[in-house]
Amino acid sequence: MTIIQPLYPIHQIEEIKRFYTREQTAGPEISAREIRMGETRMLWYSYLAEKEYHMPMQLRGERVEMHFKLHGRSGVSYEGEQFVMHSNEQSLFYQHDLEGEFILFPDVESSFFEVEFSRSVFESLVTEECPFLQQFSQQLQTARNHLWPGHSMAITPKMHMIISEMGNTPYTGQMKRLFLEAKLIELFLLQASGFDQYTPHITDLRSADIERLHAARQYLEQHFTDDCSIISLAGQVGINQKKLKQGFKALFGHTVFGYLSHIRMEKARQLLLDEKKTVGEVSELVGYQHPQHFAAAFKRKYNILPGSLKN
């Protein structure tokens, strides 16, 4: 019995890993991983830019893109508009035969995950129970080259978990296809329902306040191993404590300490998986004095003990 109509033929799944040199990109070195399943692509990109780059962009054809900026800051510019996304932000885009440029900002390691699928796949997922998707689809009935909701939203902890699971699944073959399809749909539903329920909460923040809140988040990303307090962070970026606490939550979807914990756990997971560090070493590197406290925090976030990743 078929529960859902497959998004792509069962036999079509392909995984590609690439490394682009400076000569190839005319910019920084870029590591890329791609999984193709018919009309759908999942892509992971990471790079470190030592200066600001403006790189030519040519997008041929028609697609809908779920974009998740995991770390750093980057942007695109086309048709007289510029879109910049910061760490822990996500949004939905429609693009059709666009030319412009990618903007890579310097000094901070940058990475993102995105899912690209055809317009026909997107339309098959539109449902009347989600006014946001219906409105997005209706806007596409008018010929255009690009469309987005007009704002980004925070990547929720659940979204981070799904993206991590998709990138580290132990399944192979058709089991992997089934797993990725299920997670892709779950991620799409989370994104769509988030935009559907969105209500602005930052109208009382001045542009200067928003800049200071972004500075606070960047400071946490660069000093996540340090002891931090609301008082010290507010003083560091020049904002009062109440506005820091309330504005940070409204703008980024995390409390200050919730975001700090998220950064530490993501870095810890990367050290355990990619650099094969011991649990004790990782605990110290991400700012914990006691490995047992680190292990408890890691289990709360990922529902697995850190030592299990090394087995």
From TrEMBL:
InterPro entries on file: Homeodomain-like_sf, HTH_AraC, HTH_AraC-typ_CS, PchR_regulatory_protein
Keyword Transcription applies: yes
DNA-binding keyword on record: yes
Cross-referenced Gene3D superfamilies: Homeodomain-like (1.10.10.60)
Keywords for the protein's UniProt record, in alphabetical order: DNA-binding, Transcription, Transcription regulation
Gene Ontology MF term list: DNA-binding transcription factor activity; sequence-specific DNA binding
Database matches in PANTHER family: REGULATORY PROTEIN PCHR
Designated name of the protein: AraC-like DNA-binding protein
Annotated organism of origin: Chitinophaga ginsengisoli
Domain HTH araC/xylS-type: 214-311
